[in-house]
Amino acid sequence: GENVEQHPSTLSVQEGDSAVIKCTYSDSASNYFPWYKQELGKRPQLIIDIRSNVGEKKDQRIAVTLNKTAKHFSLHITETQPEDSAVYFCAALSGSARQLTFGSGTQLTVLP
Amino acid sequence: KAGVTQTPRYLIKTRGQQVTLSCSPISGHRSVSWYQQTPGQGLQFLFEYFSETQRNKGNFPGRFSGRQFSNSRSEMNVSTLELGDSALYLCASSLDWTPWTAYEQYFGPGTRLTVT
């Protein structure tokens, strides 16, 4: 089945700096890659997603890039703010199994 | 539109008991997926329901089961509870389901299950 690896597990940045979180996946048939933000005690919130026919997608301060050849995708957050502090999860939808497989999460801390 | 709702929010059960959790999807959404979230294993897929039929199942024992009603509301049941079943159980709803199209999934707040 699909396997998703996410790095780093923790990331601290200064307010205003950029943050990058990277994920790799194993199933070359995976075709949908969402990112979720989960604040402490709250539900995972979909923040951005990308499909396999697109290489990059941007929404204000967040962007996601996808490299199908290398089977990796990344989340980029620019001009970070303290409210960006949360756990971020990447996921991949397997083309064959049709289920979302999640990465292990990245705890992002934005220091004021 | 109201978001995904789950009841109850918190539950304490004893080993060997069974439990039923409920999920109401976003109005108009017809697919419901269930996930288990634990500190050690992260977010793991349990199963997905669409049109009252289980479309996909994750790697969990048969003690975990679910169903979906004609109004798209879904329930999951865990029988013969074990200590290791303590977790946050999340459901997510999506607009539709096809074998070839991915639809965005929106999560509910979860049910925190503690097994003692």
Architecture overview:
- The complex is a heterodimer of chains A (112) and B (116).
- Chain A is mainly β.
- Chain A is 0% helix and 56% strand.
- Chain A has no helices and eleven strands.
- In chain A, strands 2, 4, 5, 9, 10 and 11 form a six-stranded mixed sheet that branches.
- In chain A, a hairpin with a 2-residue loop joins strand 6 and strand 7.
- The mean pLDDT of chain A is 95.
- Chain B is mainly β.
Give the overall pLDDT of chain A as a whole number.
95
> How can the largest sheet of chain B be summarized?
7 strands, mixed
Overall strand count of chain A: 11
Q: How much of the sequence of chain A is in beta strands?
A: over 45%
Helices and strands in order, then pairings?
The complex is a heterodimer of chains A (112) and B (116).
Chain A: E1 4-7, E2 10-14, E3 19-25, E4 32-38, E5 45-51, E6 56-59, E7 62-67, E8 72-77, E9 86-93, E10 100-102, E11 106-111
Parallel strand pairs in A: 2-11
Antiparallel strand pairs in A: 1-3, 3-8, 4-5, 4-9, 6-7, 7-8, 9-10, 9-11
Chain B: E1 5-7, E2 10-13, E3 19-24, E4 31-38, E5 42-50, E6 53-57, E7 64-68, E8 74-78, E9 87-94, E10 106-107, E11 111-115
